[in-house]
Amino acid sequence: MSDLISADLIDLDLTGADRHEATGKLAGLLAAAGRVTDAEGFLADVRAREEQMPTGIEGGIGIPHARSAHVTVPSLAFGRAPGGIDFGSEDGPADLVFLIAAPEGGGSEHMTILAKLARKLIHQDFKTALREAPDAEAVAALIQQSLS
What we know:
PTS sugar transporter subunit IIA, 5 helices, PTS_EIIA_type-2_dom, 21% strand, six-stranded mixed sheet, transport, 6 strands, phosphotransferase system
């Protein structure tokens, strides 16, 4: 799964008035990299998923995700949001945001990614390393190691 994320899919200064705007910025990275063919179509699928249940989890984490016909290859975009963005978690805004994009016919790939991330995100040292990583390359390496 090491090809899921690369430095060009990482925004270390993610901002947004709300979760939709922030997710839109990450989706733009996926589209620019050719991993999403239609950013707006993909975002509609992400919003539909988000309406079912918020994707914020305890500890300052947001994990919006969707299977979509607009995704060409399983991918993960990441944003570090110093100001925090509300993803619906009871403990407050998220400053670490993972956007999981899976092809519509991809079966359970995105759930495998989600499960691996969730297992890693219970460890404070991993979250701290993501928050303190000096650049996008370091973040990509941390995430790749966590998913292997």
